[in-house]
Amino acid sequence: MTANQTPARFPSPATAFDDDLFSYYFSFFHDTAAASDPQPSSALPSPMEPNPNKRPREDDLSPSRLVALKPSSSSSSPPPVDDDAAEQEEAQAVPPTVQPGHRRLWVKDRSSDWWDYYNHPDLPEDEFRRAFRMCRATFDFLCDELGSAVAKEDTALRAAIPVRQRVAVCVWRLATGEPLRLVSRRFGLGISTCHKLVLEVCTAIRNVLLPRLLLWPAPSEAASAAARFEALSGIPNVVGAMYTTHIPIIAPKESAATYFNRRHTERNQKTSYTVTIQGVVDPDGVFTDVCIGWPGSMPDDQVLEKSALFERANSGLLNNQWLVGGGSYPLLDWVLVPYAQTNLTWAQHAFNEKIGEVQRVAKEAFARLKGRWGCLQKRAEVKLQDLPVFLGACCVLHNICETKGEEMDPELRCDVVDDEMVPENGVRSASAMQNRDSIAHNLLHHGLAGTAFL
């Protein structure tokens, strides 16, 4: 297909909390996000001999082909097949004439015209970027980095799916949130193959790119971030802005009550189950820490307490430094939050305005994250144990796009609405309370709060 041709069009698409129930959870802040050894795939069963007299289904509009395989001895097992060859319907080779003693199976012809069009080197850059939320150079970088982790070898049955197509399936699925049956039609692959490719590429992103691209800032980088946040708000020693958002999921079969989000249900008038993403961003909106997977019934302060960030910060990671959070977080020695009382002094009101400017950096980063990766606006159709990898890949891809200056189309922007629940114990450090009062006083008396003190 040439660049002047138009691609095929497709239709658009609580009970008591038990920590043991959430053993799948992990924080991307820990070094445990390093690559884990892949599990060996189980042996594939031998293809069944089809009935040569069987007529195709009347409702199956896709053409089928009869493919002959190599003969096998009566005592030996079938020849080894790569994981993707389990989808026999994807066979690309022209079927040979079936000879006596050969095994046979029916496969379905699928068109890859859509992918061929978008993979053509003459495709306009703007059209590629609108489709995959990144320019071709960034996509090539992603393929180069993940190539060795996702590439497969050709088999006797067919050629392996190319790395670019594997990565494109994942990026398209994350970018659009399109149902797998439509992704299958676009790329000319089986539905289960597309689902498997998404998880494989997300796992490769976690193992290969996350340790390099989602890191807590080094001391020099933290000092630079503090200077930029101070220039923005006048508040010193702020190294990150923190925010927690909710991602809709399908109601789990077990412990569904813990994932039930009452506030989202009441606002949308639709039963809602969610998991949380807690993230810390730098002045550019790049994630430096994420904590993924805790259920939607948990308030933000409890999510923070269960994160690896909480443990490491209390161990001295944030020495004389602040993270800025909203009203749903407690005031700690390293977490700076706005005043929660109703009757505010002039200094307290000015302080809250400046805190809001820093908090806006994190909220806008999450708005770009959800806008660019549309799967986060729909119910995640993956298992709970796969959610941290699936959602974490979106955070890593967000960092890649942000650091490479990828612009996001204005029509993709979305509003981030997350209800803030004031914690029961909003002030947990007397020294932090004194430091906050001192910062508020200095902002006002040094004319950094919008109005000079007279």
From TrEMBL:
Q: Which domain of life is it from?
A: Eukaryota
**Subcellular location per the Swiss-Prot or TrEMBL entry:** Nucleus
Give positions of region: Disordered.
35-102
Domain (DDE Tnp4) ranges? 243-399
The name on file for this protein is (wild Malaysian banana) hypothetical protein
Q: One GO cellular component from the entry?
A: nucleus
Give the Gene Ontology MF terms in alphabetical order: hydrolase activity; metal ion binding; nuclease activity
Q: Name one Pfam family in it.
A: DDE_Tnp_4
**Essential cofactor(s):** a divalent metal cation
- InterPro entries under this entry? HARBI1-like (IPR045249), HARBI1_dom (IPR027806)
Q: Where is the composition biased (Acidic residues)?
A: 81-90
In the record, the note on similarity to other proteins reads: Belongs to the HARBI1 family.
Assigned keywords, A-Z? Hydrolase, Metal-binding, Nuclease, Nucleus
